[in-house]
Amino acid sequence: MWAQLLDALWALPLEKRIFAAVLLFSWTVYLWETFLAQRQRRVYRTTTHVPKELGQIMDSETFEKSRLYQLDKSTFSFWSGLYSEAEGTIILLFGGIPYLWNFSGVFCRRAGFGPEYEITQSLMFLFLATLFSALTGLPWSLYNTFVIEEKHGFNQQVLVTIYADYIAPLFDKFIPLPEGTLKEEIEVMAKNIDFPLTKVYVVEGSKRSSHSNAYFYGFFKNKRIVLFDTLLEDYSILNKDHQEETSIEPQNIGEGENPETKAKVRTKKQGCKNEEVLAVLGHELGHWKLGHTVKNIVISQMNSFLCFFLFAMLISRKELFAAFGFYDSQPTLIGLMIIFQFIFSPYNEVLSFCLTVLSRRFEFQADAFAKKLGKAKDLYSALIKLNKDNLGFPVSDWLFSMWHYSHPPLLERLQALQDSKQD
Ligand SMILES: [Zn+2]
């Protein structure tokens, strides 16, 4: 049956074959990702206990809450994904793109623009296409925000995340790390691995950001290390709050089932000890020493070059336009859309998978580098501390994780470090 189908496809004119291949590929990717999501859903359904590695940082109540949330979200994504795949297919099959293009043209002509103004028609097309996708997407995102996130009490997180990731950093204050043991130890480590360190900074008041902990920047022989004050136990502004909080603490004891552990968690300081800070830095500098930064730049440059080269070759091919219903005109905007969105999609899928695999490899290599510096134990405890507040659901199916996560989940990193702690 498959052989006959392929024969039948092969007998079609070239533009029909291109169209069929694009649709077929889109459904292949869709089915593959649905399969992965279904595997991940099984993990949500069956993993009902906190993994032992995370026992100290995640209680079973938080774990269960996050598990049920992910389960609902995953079911929702199944339906919204099916909808958008079906919508995309119907638009392609019924010639939605040329229809909207012609409609934009008619609209522009009525408004007094001649057919020579392709740019006006393109802008109109973009506007209408965006409007259409916003309108069809709106019910889904409303349902997501007001039903699912409301039910699980997660709905304010979007704003908080936007604030923490985009707005708060604008007001970050960089101050040089004061002289002291930490600074000396950082300098010694940098020297040992030939890292051309010129300055160490601390970002003050980075209370809100829980994403990044440390990074370096600068060219060639002039590199600076930046540490977020949330990383540093002796520095973290959170510990100042903490002193105020401890005074009201006795009132809270008694409500919880387990006042003793609650008190213990509360009195624990935020941030990492010096050895742990060094272990985190060991990981970051591992990225530098192993050439990860340079490799990433080279790859992305090569990719842009290749894309533009292919684009230049393909933009003049009339059969690509014909495949999507543009028989007698070849508008540039439509060409961009066809080539980057449809024709390149197999390439993009393969590339993004390779980059995901590579990025995960880099993370594990940087962890291994920190381990080679003798910091496996400190990195292990630092990772646990740093992920305490933004853990989400910590367990994932290996195949799902491999396809989607460019950064290995905490549990996989801990397991890798634990393996290396033993040897
Ligand atoms: Zn890293």
From TrEMBL:
Taxonomy of the source species: Eukaryota, Metazoa, Chordata, Craniata, Vertebrata
Predominant cellular place of this UniProt entry's protein: endoplasmic reticulum
Cofactor binding mode and count: Binds 1 zinc ion per subunit.
Record: residues binding Zn(2+): 283, 287, 363
Name this protein carries in UniProt: CAAX prenyl protease
UniProt GO MF annotations: metal ion binding; metalloendopeptidase activity
Keyword Transmembrane helix: yes
Entry's localization field: Endoplasmic reticulum membrane
Pfam families (alphabetical): Peptidase_M48, Peptidase_M48_N
Species name: Monodelphis domestica (Gray short-tailed opossum)
Annotated TM spans: 18-36, 76-101, 121-143, 305-327, 333-358
Gene Ontology annotations of biological process type: CAAX-box protein processing
UniProt similarity note: Belongs to the peptidase M48A family.
